[in-house]
Structure formats: C-alpha cells, structure tokens
Amino acid sequence: MLSSKTCWYDGKLIHSGKVEVAIDDPGLLYGATAFTTLRVYRQSLDGPLTNWQGHCDRLQSTLQAFGWKSPDWQRVRYGAEILLSSFPVLRITLFPDGREWITGRALPDNLALLQKNGAIAWLSPPETNRSLTRHKTGNYLAPWLARQAAQQHGALEAILVDFNGSWLESSTGNLWGWGQGCWWTPPLGSGILPGLMRSQLISWLKCQNENIREEPWGEELVSSFEAIAYSNSVVQIVPIHTVLSSTGNLTYDPKHQAFQQLQQLFSASNAQIPDIR
Known about the structure:
Blueprint: E1 7-9, E2 12-14, H1 26-30, E3 34-39, H2 52-66, H3 73-84, E4 89-94, E5 100-105, H4 111-117, E6 119-123, H5 141-152, E7 157-161, E8 167-170, E9 174-179, E10 182-185, H6 196-207, E11 212-214, H7 219-224, E12 227-232, E13 236-244, E14 250-251, H8 258-263
Parallel strand pairs: 6-7, 6-13, 10-11
Antiparallel strand pairs: 1-2, 1-5, 3-4, 4-5, 7-8, 9-10, 9-12, 12-13, 13-14
C-alpha cells in the first residue's frame, strides 16, 4: 500500500510528498497545466466506466488546442498503473513541456450518503466562472473560491451562473435536471466543461431511448424541475435537494425515482456501458 504522499512525477515514483518545480515554471506561475481526474473501477484502466482512453483523449485535445507538447503516454499509463493499486481516484496533470504528474486519493468518505440523501448547493455570482471553459486547466481558482464560499454558506457545492443568470455547471461537475418527463442538461455552447461522465450519461440514456434536452437553464426552467443533480467521474451522480439563493431557496426531491434509472449505469451487472472516446 502506497503512502498518501506518494505520487508519480516526470517518469519517477516520488515518496516524499514533494516534487521539484522551477521557480519560473509556467505551471507554477500561471496554472499552465491541463488535468483530468478519474475513478478507477475494479483496479483497471481498461473498463468502460474508468474510461481511461476518454480521459487521455480529452487531455490530448487540450494539448493540441494550446500547442503544448504531448507526454510519453506509455509512461503516463505506467505511472497510473502503479498508483491505482492504492488509490481509487487518480488526478493526471500535464505540463506544457510534456511532463506528467499523477496523484492519488480516496473516494469521499460520505459519498454513499450524498448519493442517497442529496447535497446543498449555493448559487454563486457570475464572476466565479471558470476560464477557458472547454478545457480543464490548472487555473481553477475561480470555481475553487466559489466552492469555498458555498461551504461558508453551509452548502457542499457551488452552482456557477453566467451574467444572464443562467445556471451553467457546479464547481466540480455538470448539472442534470428532471422535469416534463425527461432529463435536461446545459448545452456545451453555454460555456461548460465537456465532462466525461456527462458524455457517458448522455450516450447511455440515448441507448435507453430516453430524451435528453440540452438547453440553457434559465430561471423559469430551473423552477420547473422536480429533481436536479451534478455529475463527475469521481462521484458519479449526486442529487441536490436545496439550492441557496439570495432571491429565495429552491428545493428538489433527492430521492426522485428518475435517479434510479441513472444509477443503473453504475451497476456491476450492466455490461452495456458506452465507452466514450
């Protein structure tokens, strides 16, 4: 079992909890990195729910968009294989010059309770939106601050909004709403991260012949939902039972029967999970 201080950096396994980064490194100075966080199922990178290739493809897409050097992908996988024996969650960070940095952590202690009972979210002001919204970069200060503020208000998550008041995403995931007999999620064009769990859920629901509507979440729409949730590759999907807002709180059903359908995606007996690339 590896220590929580162990990480993989630039082709080496580090046990000290410290890595050496130059004082003029753009990753340190400007947050110039790309990262992804994945949950490893059954200690395997090759399972469809782990979606290793999907995570690598999204990272590569960011590298190409920024004109950065690709890492040695075999070395990245080798480092991940070492860490996954001790950690169910891996964060893979890539630097502009091709260096890789992989850290591991445990699942949230209260995840099962959150999935069962739901969480409280806080509506964040629009200035806390992420920059370069189509990419997951190391410059993650704005949503981190939004989540810190949410916790000061007694909430777990922040919901990011645009300057028109439309809901975009949570500080750590994509949003889902159930209403009018179908699932809703904000469109990519509204300025949200193309989450890999979001893509898997959309593909899986379409395989079940379910209707998914990707439309902006204005005030009228969010008030009409019976249930809402957020998703990411680590927590899967977590219902939200209350949204705190300066204009009045909104409440939703965290145990809505529609969530039972989404939970089927994560059933160990489900062998038809789409592999998103």
